[in-house]
Specification:
Number of helices: 10
Helix content: 40-55%
CATH superfamily of the domain at 10-175 and 214-243 and 279-295: NAD(P)-binding Rossmann-like Domain
Number of strands: 11
CATH class of the domain at 10-175 and 214-243 and 279-295: Alpha Beta
Distance between the termini: 46 Å
Largest sheet: 6 strands, parallel
Shape: globular
Strand content: 15-25%
Length: 317
Amino acid sequence: MKGADLAGSRIMVTGGGGFLGRRIVDRLEERGANAIVVRSADYDLTEPERVRAALQDAQADYVIHAAAVVGGIGANREHPGSFFYANAVMGVHLIHEAWRAGIRKLLIVGTVCSYPKYAEVPFREDDLWSGYPEETNAPYGLAKKMLLVQAQAYRDEYGFESVVVIPTNLFGPGDNFDYDTSHVIPAIIRKCVEAREAGNDEVVLWGTGKATREFLYVDDAAEGLVLGLQKLEGRDPVNLGSATEIAIADLAELIARTTGFRGRFAWDASKPDGQPRRAVDGSRARDLLGWSPRVGIEDGLRRTVDWYLENRAEIRS
C-alpha cells in the first residue's frame, strides 16, 4: 500500500515541539510536507476556543495529535486527576473541532497504558477492552482510550477520517530526565551517571525489577506514526512495538554497562512495579503500514546516554 503523498500538504502537529513531536515534524518535512507546530505555550488545547484558533491559524489538510500530559509511575500517582482531565479534554476538543473544520484526516497518538493490567502478552489491539488498566496509570490510559471511542463514533456518524496508533514505551535522545516526571530509562541513566561520578556504589530503584517492558526508539515511533497518517484506514487501532520484552532489572544492568556504573542496584519493593508485563503484537503495523523498527535497545541506549552526557548542563539550567 503506497499511501497518501504528503508532499506539499499542510500538517498540524500538536505537541510538535516535544520529545516525540519533533521527530514527527522531521519525518513530515523529509516527505516535503509543511509541518505546523502547535505548542502548549501558544495554544491551550484544553480550551475549545484555542483549539479552534490553532486549526484556523494552521489551515491544515491533516492533523497529528501528539500532545499529551505524561510522566512515570510517580507522576501518574501524584496527578491522576489532572492527567485524566488534560488528556481527555484536549483530545475531545481536537477531534470535534477537526471534524468541524473539514480536516482531511486526523491521526491520534494512543498509549500502551490503555491496555488491561493482565492482558495476554503480547498485547493485541483486540484486547484493549478485556479488562481494566494498571491502577497507577489507569486515569491517563483511560483518557487516551476514550479518544479511540470518539474517533470511531465520529467515523460512524459523520464519516470523519480519524485513526489511532498506539506506540509502546518510547526512549531516545531528547527524553525527559527530570526525576519527578521522567520515565524509567532516563531516570536510571541519570541515577547511574550521577552515582558513577560521585563514587557511589549503590543506586536505589523503584519496585522489584521483575516487571517487564518493551521499549521503542523515538525515531522509529515517529516513522511509524507518519506511515499511519499516510496509509492507515478504518476504525481499528494499530500497535507500534519493538518485539523485545525486557525485565526492568535486566534493563538496569544494561544501562549500568552503557554508563560505566559498576555498583549494585537496591530495589525498593515498597514502591510499585506498575503493570506486571508489557509488550505488544506489532503484526498489524507490519501488514498495514509496512513498518518495522530499525534501532535496537542497546544501540538506542548508547545514543541516549551519549546525548544526555553532552546536554545535561543545558538540561539542568
